[in-house]
């Protein structure tokens, strides 16, 4: 065992937490961290712990586990509505925090967490993995150098396939609230949250005070409370505009992307692949690929070497403005039966909105909301023109 490895506790090791468990195993093999404890409602089995070497402590009580292990970092990958309270537990014990996105389900909870983090003097990194990509800074540098001329706006699109069982993956899945607590598990705020967060970082307006306004259209084809097909327009205090169109009712699974529109070309970031396409009239498309820094490794480097955090809590304030807008918006509009069909997938039935894949692309291309694109099921009135 590496004596210099940073002791880590993982809170939430099942579901998406399996990704974090595998990542901790990888970083432990590199000697960077060691898994000191796991906080889960039920202990992990020997099979789930395979390859981790020394068996970590396990407990359903995070505070007790931190007292027992003295862990320096806690990775929290638990239901959205528990993020704030578990963050407070971590802060109270002076441990540092890697918190899965979205950081909190409301602006008020975000402010409370920010106060807890500041009072404890701990580091808090938010798990927007796409923001660890070197492609983000590369695009900002190309824009600043005039590669695509003056920026007209940024579009984001994501069209994913999710079966009906996805919404039953956990008791809180597909809920706006549960037991009187905010959850906000919609397509914009959770599964395709990276699309908006990445666009905000590229635009350079990722702090709460940099957002002038947020408009959303929320729809659902599935029998859930939250939105599964939505769009948003975010205007920044710097005069920028971001329009996102996303769905979990796609005809085919697609790669999400962010596109920066300039008056002399465009830059498209396929953020899961860390690939950037530069397109300019009359010239061949230039494709570049970039590396990515793991956010837990970056947090360790921050603590040991003073490296700047890639996704500190305060730089997710703008995204939380979107979460708050979704939280306080009217209930998602239920799409009529004629607007969607049922397809059979490998894991069961799923609801599909015909034509939605093309609509998400068109929204990102034209910087337009679904209602502005003439989608027959879009019942939102088009917002008034924005004076510039």
From TrEMBL:
InterPro entries: Gfo/Idh/MocA-like_OxRdtase_N, Gfo/Idh/MocA_oxidrdct_glycsds, NAD(P)-bd_dom_sf. It comes from the Bacteria. GO terms for molecular function: nucleotide binding; oxidoreductase activity. Keywords: Oxidoreductase. It holds the Pfam family GFO_IDH_MocA. Residues 8-128 form the Gfo/Idh/MocA-like oxidoreductase N-terminal domain. This is Gfo/Idh/MocA family oxidoreductase. The lineage of its organism: Bacteria, Bacillati, Actinomycetota, Actinomycetes, Kitasatosporales.
């Amino acid at each position: 065992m590496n004596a210099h490895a940073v002791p880590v506790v993982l809170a939430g090791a099942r579901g998406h937490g399996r990704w974090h468990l595998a990542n901790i195993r990888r970083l432990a093999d590199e000697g960077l961290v060691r898994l000191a404890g796991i906080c889960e409602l039920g202990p992990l089995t020997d099979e789930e712990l395979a390859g981790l070497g020394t068996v970590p402590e396990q407990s359903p009580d995070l505070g007790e586990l931190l007292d027992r292990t003295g862990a320096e970092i806690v990775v929290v990958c638990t239901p959205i509505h528990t993020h704030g309270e578990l963050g407070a537990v971590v802060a109270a014990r002076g441990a540092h925090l890697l918190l899965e996105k979205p950081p909190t389900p409301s602006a008020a909870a975000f402010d409370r967490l920010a106060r807890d983090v500041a009072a404890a003097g701990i580091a808090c990194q938010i798990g927007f993995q796409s923001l660890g990509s070197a492609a983000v800074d590369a695009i900002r540098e190309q824009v600043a150098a005039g590669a695509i001329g003056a920026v007209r706006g940024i579009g984001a699109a994501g069209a994913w396939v999710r079966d009906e069982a996805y919404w039953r993956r956990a008791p809180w899945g597909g809920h706006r609230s549960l037991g009187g607590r905010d959850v906000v598990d919609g397509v914009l705020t959770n599964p395709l949250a990276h699309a908006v967060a990445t666009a905000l970082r590229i635009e350079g307006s990722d702090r709460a005070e940099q957002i002038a306004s947020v408009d959303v259209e929320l729809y659902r084809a599935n029998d859930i409370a939250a939105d599964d097909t939505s769009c948003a327009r975010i205007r920044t205090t710097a005069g920028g505009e971001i329009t996102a169109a996303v769905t979990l009712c796609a005809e085919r699974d697609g790669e999400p992307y962010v596109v920066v529109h300039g008056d002399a070309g465009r830059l498209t970031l396929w953020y899961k692949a860390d690939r950037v396409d530069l397109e300019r009239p009359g010239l061949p498309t230039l494709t570049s690929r970039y590396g990515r820094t793991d956010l837990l490794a970056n947090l360790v480097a921050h603590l040991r070497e003073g490296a700047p955090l890639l996704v500190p809590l305060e730089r997710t304030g703008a995204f939380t403005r979107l979460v708050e807008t979704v939280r306080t918006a009217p209930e998602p509009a239920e799409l009529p039966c004629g607007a969607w069909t049922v397809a059979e997938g490998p894991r069961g039935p799923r609801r599909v909105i015909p034509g939605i894949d093309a609509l998400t692309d068109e929204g990102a291309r034209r910087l337009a909301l679904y209602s502005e694109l003439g989608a027959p099921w879009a019942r939102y009135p088009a917002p008034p023109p924005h004076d510039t």
